Amino acid sequence: MTRSNKKMSKTARLIPGALVYVGEKKTEKVRITIIDYNETQFQEKEVKTIEECFPFKETPTVTWINIDGIHDVALIEKVGKQFDLHPLVLEDILNTEQRPKYEDFESHVFIVLKMIMFDENKNDISSEQVSLLLGANFVISFQETEGDVFEPVRDRLRNAKGRIRKMGADFLAYALLDTIIDSYYLILEKMGEKIEEMGEELMSNPTPKTLQAIHNLKRDTILLRKSVWPLREVINSLGRGEPKLIKKTTHIFLRDAYDHAVQVIDTIETFRDIVSGMLDIYLSSVSNRMNEVMKLLTIFAVIFIPLTFMTGIYGMNFKFMPELDWKWGYFTLLGVMAVVVIVMLCYFKKKKWI
Amino acid sequence: MTRSNKKMSKTARLIPGALVYVGEKKTEKVRITIIDYNETQFQEKEVKTIEECFPFKETPTVTWINIDGIHDVALIEKVGKQFDLHPLVLEDILNTEQRPKYEDFESHVFIVLKMIMFDENKNDISSEQVSLLLGANFVISFQETEGDVFEPVRDRLRNAKGRIRKMGADFLAYALLDTIIDSYYLILEKMGEKIEEMGEELMSNPTPKTLQAIHNLKRDTILLRKSVWPLREVINSLGRGEPKLIKKTTHIFLRDAYDHAVQVIDTIETFRDIVSGMLDIYLSSVSNRMNEVMKLLTIFAVIFIPLTFMTGIYGMNFKFMPELDWKWGYFTLLGVMAVVVIVMLCYFKKKKWI
Amino acid sequence: MTRSNKKMSKTARLIPGALVYVGEKKTEKVRITIIDYNETQFQEKEVKTIEECFPFKETPTVTWINIDGIHDVALIEKVGKQFDLHPLVLEDILNTEQRPKYEDFESHVFIVLKMIMFDENKNDISSEQVSLLLGANFVISFQETEGDVFEPVRDRLRNAKGRIRKMGADFLAYALLDTIIDSYYLILEKMGEKIEEMGEELMSNPTPKTLQAIHNLKRDTILLRKSVWPLREVINSLGRGEPKLIKKTTHIFLRDAYDHAVQVIDTIETFRDIVSGMLDIYLSSVSNRMNEVMKLLTIFAVIFIPLTFMTGIYGMNFKFMPELDWKWGYFTLLGVMAVVVIVMLCYFKKKKWI
Amino acid sequence: MTRSNKKMSKTARLIPGALVYVGEKKTEKVRITIIDYNETQFQEKEVKTIEECFPFKETPTVTWINIDGIHDVALIEKVGKQFDLHPLVLEDILNTEQRPKYEDFESHVFIVLKMIMFDENKNDISSEQVSLLLGANFVISFQETEGDVFEPVRDRLRNAKGRIRKMGADFLAYALLDTIIDSYYLILEKMGEKIEEMGEELMSNPTPKTLQAIHNLKRDTILLRKSVWPLREVINSLGRGEPKLIKKTTHIFLRDAYDHAVQVIDTIETFRDIVSGMLDIYLSSVSNRMNEVMKLLTIFAVIFIPLTFMTGIYGMNFKFMPELDWKWGYFTLLGVMAVVVIVMLCYFKKKKWI
Amino acid sequence: MTRSNKKMSKTARLIPGALVYVGEKKTEKVRITIIDYNETQFQEKEVKTIEECFPFKETPTVTWINIDGIHDVALIEKVGKQFDLHPLVLEDILNTEQRPKYEDFESHVFIVLKMIMFDENKNDISSEQVSLLLGANFVISFQETEGDVFEPVRDRLRNAKGRIRKMGADFLAYALLDTIIDSYYLILEKMGEKIEEMGEELMSNPTPKTLQAIHNLKRDTILLRKSVWPLREVINSLGRGEPKLIKKTTHIFLRDAYDHAVQVIDTIETFRDIVSGMLDIYLSSVSNRMNEVMKLLTIFAVIFIPLTFMTGIYGMNFKFMPELDWKWGYFTLLGVMAVVVIVMLCYFKKKKWI
Fold first, then answer.
1. Does the N-terminal or the C-terminal CB of chain A have fewer CB atoms within 10 Å?
2. Which residues 77-106 of D are in CB contact (within 8 Å) with C?
3. Under an 8 A CB cutoff, do D99 and C263 touch?
4. First to last CA, chain A
5. Mean pLDDT of chain D
């Protein structure tokens, strides 16, 4: 929560038209890698300055420039100048609180996405904004930090696996989109495991912590949903061929990615239903336990209260109490008590309490 | 859950463009059957290799190739090559986690469906993906395992019952679709029986297990719903004549199938409402029982606590307690106690507790 | 539930293209009545065989053929042949689990409706399917059993009341539709009365049976809703003049019927809201009673537990207990007890428990 | 409820085409008033018979005929004949259970509305149907009973305030519509006050009556909502200029009225949210009180049960019980008891129960 | 609540066409400031009378007239006359209960907005209506009171930062809109902080006050939502270029503002989900505490009730009770009691109650 809100207030102080990085302060060097390829040749290198990338803009080969770290505002501005980007695009790249969307400027298409990763240490999910800039023969990807889910795409490019090397920049953009959607499946898998654990815990020993965990899970599904719902719309629009930069041969692939996005949403909705059901079961198991406690109390009270009353009777000090003088008085009473107990136990048995 | 998640992670590692079977590992031989017919002739045989099917592609008769088992990726690839299928179609056939959809490629229509079966042993429902490939004069159906609901269609083909032998491949595709929808009715019937049992159990003896069973039922309705909702849309689109391969005479039949799908959805929604109502009744009956327990406890406590107090009074050892010396003190006290009990009982009677 | 499910499984075994009656087995004779009229003449008779009806098809007068009982499949097939009906229409007539819909075949319009009747004996509502077949100058109505709500229409035809005798078959179809909608008002009235009774019971003496009754009521509203919602759409489409058989002068009447259907839906929604509110009140009154029980228990326990403790003190057999020897010890203690009781009562008074 | 249902059953027995008044029987005389005006002249009078109104139909001035009481069916029929109204319009005027709607007949527009009034005596809201008939230069308004919210409009007409006297009959119809919407604000104000009272009662002393009152409030919001939602649609359609009788200059005023209707709906929705929140608070405060009761019981029981046990120990009559003979045995025990009490109290203090 | 309702009743008494200020009575002087600029020149001054503003209307420079205080109806009327505004626009400016909307009059566009501010003193949010009037080369803004969120815009104008001085009045209007949306982020930040505090309080020590606070938070989200939802639509329409006064270069900026509005709505929805989850946790923690209380009571009762019964047995005064005469009777009994206690404790241990 906190981190997210801090960002918001920074955004609030933003001046439209002035570029300000919105996010945690960072001092690491921005890492820039270039992959340049066509069907026959392939080149991959890491560059020091963004200027080294600019010559690739003119070549007919497809160029993928990946920028890890967007806190260097000057660098982003240089890219903006070189590739003739609208100032609002630069602002959107820097504002890491965007929701997934795309914007079509004849000469380039700008796409904002959320990459969601599972942090094994914190046992929680975290999200990172990825901005894609698709031009005629280049793709520029902006990430918040190093480390991403794009390795399979790089491998395919390196090994010329599948059709990717034969196709244009739009297919590369699709491949990146698709890889991100695929990575959501991993998150869903993790969540599915958590849900299962939770379900077992719920049956064996539900505690208030379980409730808290269920609510955290619910919050995670909400977060995931917020990332995927708009993404679905983005892919749908791209697949309907709205931006001219996306070629017709890529449409069917985007429709396939769209199907995957819908599948992810479906699974999220199912998780939400299951998690809601868990809340019901939790509440009901709590009230069930209370019931059990009450039954135990009642069984003891109902059996012993009359017995104790009887002992009270014969503990009185009245001068004239004939039973006290009977020889078998004491044992008779014990017998009566035993009968009472048996009757009570039968009653509870009939009621299925014991 | 588990099984479903395992699949997901496999999908996540998929490389777009490379065919990988997504599902449980299987080693059984894939079973291929061919039914070839027109109005006058009919032929049905099981073949060893997929190549034996290819000649039928050219004949003017309608050919139905049924493939049980999709774990043999090489086989699927051969089909793809022979029938000129888009790579993504092959991927979709192998990815058994698809949601129902259809894809129109001028020369063929690709339809994904869910076949839902009730497993009497596990007393649970299981779902299997069926892919249909409709060409000008052939239908290819891909199933995950042997055993399906298509026997009535085969019977009609064998016996030339109804109009099926007189019509084209699109009508065969419709017949298969319709048979799957009809099979949902069987599932609904099973669920209806379960709901009824549950309802009686709920009245007679609700336990936490009942709650769990209600939630399982709810989950089943969700699963069914996820299969039928998109199917409805698929049939609607087919019935509106979007793919040209579907002839006009088949439209009215598809509209009829659409009506059935809507009817299934209606019944599912009704089941959901009933199951939700059951949850309410369960919770209320639990709190009602607690009430009953509390009442019993209170009746005993309220009657005996004052009586025990009285015995306590006369069990004290004060030197000077005039009542102790009265001749009829003891019996007077017993009388007073009886009066107290009667008053209490009248009070509870008035409150309708007993 | 049961009856409905039985039907479903029968449907599931249906072979598309083969006519099978879906519903309870019946052996009664099918009853066929004909009403033939125009502005000047009127004829009403009951016929033995369906063939007697066929000559009326050619006359210019409007003919209303009413068929009570659809279990005679052969008869339905004859009608189908004579009036040139699509096989799926015949199937729909026989399948009594249809949802309201209409189907436009140039030469005739097929409408499926639900007639809902209140069974005074069972104190429950039951629904029956009515199929209307509207041709150029005839209407054929198919009902499951004898007994319907169409008597007012017959009366108007007999007495030439209103405009009905002057208008065509489409107006007759409208009149039948409208009569069915009007009959829903009667059901709503019955439900309104039940809701009121329930509301009073809820205030005076809520029991688990009340809860069950509320849920039955809720189920009835769901059933009614399922019949009326699609009906609304049917009437809307008819009123927008989609089938050409419906003349323009009838449109305004259909729009009026549409308004009534919307009114019925509105009332149903209100009933649902009220019934939901009743569930809340029930649950709250149950927890309120528990509260009352607890208060009673607590008052008794809190008053008598300290008193009993005091008697325990002076019931001990210590050799040296000075109070026991005081002359007024006993009465002092009784006084102390009285003070304790008064203090307690004041406390409870202040808390508004008594 | 009851009254509304009575009406329904009457409607159910209605014969389409025959005029029957639906509503409470009344015997009062129908009151007819005429206001006739143009920019320069103004005339207001009460007439005895409806026939006196007919000459005004032909004059070029705008005429507003207001009819209080619609139980005189003959009168309504005369109006219908004179102004050439469709029979269904007359039926709608008499059927006081209509939902807001409008019907456009080239020569006149028929509008049905709900006027909602707060009855100070019953402390409840009641609704009355108002039908407006807008012609080229006349407006006829039909009300169920005398007494309405139109006085401000009459005042403006009399005093020639604002633009109303300069504009046509369509502006008059708008003014009447707008006045009705304005009157909803008064109802909302009353409801707002009630909600506030309720909120305070909820905090200070919630009783089952409070719950009942909250539910009544909820029912009122539902009733109001049912009147305003369709009205919104009516005004929207009128404002989009669908009926030709509404002139372009009036459109902007209707759009303004539309904004007001939306504002009313917004407030109703807010009230619904608040009332739902109140239900939550009620339920929670009830369970909170139960908690408090339980705590009190538990404190007393947990403190005194062990003490009473101790007195029980030394009340036993064993021959050999050394403690009984100790000189300070009694006082030692009292000391031990005091320690137990203190320990308990500290425990409860730590738990924040006391 | 109260204040809002007071306003409503005033609105209700409004006469359409007559201007009445709706809001709290105020006597302060209305403050009018003018900013007049183009790319090269800039002028900012405060004027005494509205007439001083009128000459600016004719100049080709962009003029922003800001009016703080709308209770001076005469002033508003003068503006209306001078700028040729529709009377309903003036009414809307004065009616501070408008929902966000825009109205396009060829020569000017009228926009109503809600400015939401966080009052640190009251620790609550308050809302103020802002009306914008956009003409060819002027913007007039009407605010209820002094103090606004527009300072950043003024700064940019003064310092000629960004593109704002180079662009027309439509960009100024956009800048004002955008600043208001940005200010919502600040409110969201405050609410996020509150939610976090609440979440911690919920875990550590939930009281009925916490519940009240959660409900207040919920009400705030509702209020915010009511302001932002319609605003989103307004901006969307403006951005689609519906009013001709908005130039094409501004569209992309409005689309950006639209994205921000959607982001705000997303966050509000997330807050609502979290707050709903909090209610669940609150209710569950209350019932959990009750459970704990019950357990304590039950542990004590179940342990001591049988022990006390035993002491009662040997406190009886029967003549013949052999155990009483045993030498080790007393200690044997104490041993038996110890065993009972140990057994009980083990039982509770096993049940995880202690």
1. C
2. 86, 88, 91-92, 97-99, 101, 103
3. yes
4. 48
5. 84
Backbone phi and psi for residue B18, each to the nearest 5 degrees, phi listed first: -105, 135
Report CA torsion sign: D18, D19, D22, D23: negative
Which string of b and e fits C231-262 if b means at least 16 CB within 10 Å? bbebbbbbbeeebebbeeebbbbbbbbbbbbb
Q: Give me the pLDDT at residue D334, please.
A: 93
Between CA A183 and CA A150 the distance in angstroms is 9
- How does residue D8 score in pLDDT terms, banded at 50, 70 and 90? very low
- Separation of alpha carbons B78 and B84, rounded Å: 10
Which residues in chain C are closer than 8 Å to B193, comparing Cβ atoms? 5
Nearest C-alpha of chain D: how many angstroms from C313? Answer: 5
Pick the closest to residue B288 from A278, C209, A350 (CA basis).
Answer: C209
Tokens of residue E128, six digits? 């103020």
The region that residue D69 occupies, defined by phi over 0 for left and psi between -120 and 50 for alpha, beta otherwise, is: left
Contacts of A95 (CB under 8 A, 6+ apart): A11, A14, A22
Tell me, yes or no, if B281 comes closer than 8 A to chain C by beta carbon: yes
Least confident of A224-238, C326-340, D307-321, E6-20: E6-20
What predicted TM-score, i.e. pTM, was given to this entire model? 0.78
Question: How far apart (Å, rounded) are the C-alpha atoms in residues C33 and C31?
Answer: 7
Q: The sheet that has B138-143: what strands, in order across it? A: B42-47, B31-37, B62-68, B138-143, B124-134, B108-119, B101-105
Which residue in C has a C-alpha nearest to residue D8's C-alpha? C185
C-alpha span between E241 and E255 (Å, rounded): 10
- pLDDT above 90 coverage of chain C, percent: 23
- Per-residue pLDDT reduced to its tens digit, A157-193: 998 877 888 888 999 999 999 999 988 888 888 888 8
Token look-up 């505090």 returns E197
User: Helices D73-83 and D87-94 sit at what angle, rounded to 10 degrees?
Assistant: 150
Is the pLDDT at B344 greater than 50? The verdict is: yes
Q: What residues of chain D, 318 to 337, have a C-beta less than 8 Å from chain E?
A: 318-321
Q: What average pLDDT does the segment B289-301 reach? A: 87
The 3 state secondary structure assigned to A223-257 is HHHHHHHHHHHHHHHHHCCCCCCCCHHHHHHHHHH
> pLDDT tens digit string along D34-88?
999 988 889 999 998 888 888 888 888 999 999 998 888 888 889 898 888 888 8
All structural domains of chain B with their residue ranges: 3-285, 295-350
DSSP class of D18? S
How far is residue D69's CA from residue D28's CA, in Å, rounded to a whole number? 8
Chain E hits for A18, Cβ within 8 Å = 161-162
Which tokens go with A117?
Answer: 């990763």
Report, as an integer, the average pLDDT of D192-215. 81
- Number of helical H runs and strand E runs in chain B: 9, 7
ipTM, interface predicted TM-score of the complex: 0.73
pLDDT in tens, C190-234: 888 888 888 888 877 777 778 878 888 888 888 888 888 899 989
Q: Token pair 């406690």 is at which residue?
A: A293
Identify the architecture of domain D3-285 in CATH.
Answer: 2-Layer Sandwich (3.30)
Q: What is the CATH number of domain A295-350?
A: 1.20.58.340
Answer for the pair B50, B87: CB distance below 8 angstroms, yes or no.
Answer: no
Q: Kindly indicate the confidence band of residue A104, based on its pLDDT and cuts at 50, 70 and 90.
A: confident
3-state secondary structure of C228: helix
- Residues 290 to 319 of D: which have CB under 8 A from any C CB? 290, 293-294, 296-297, 300-301, 304-305, 307-308, 310-312, 314-317
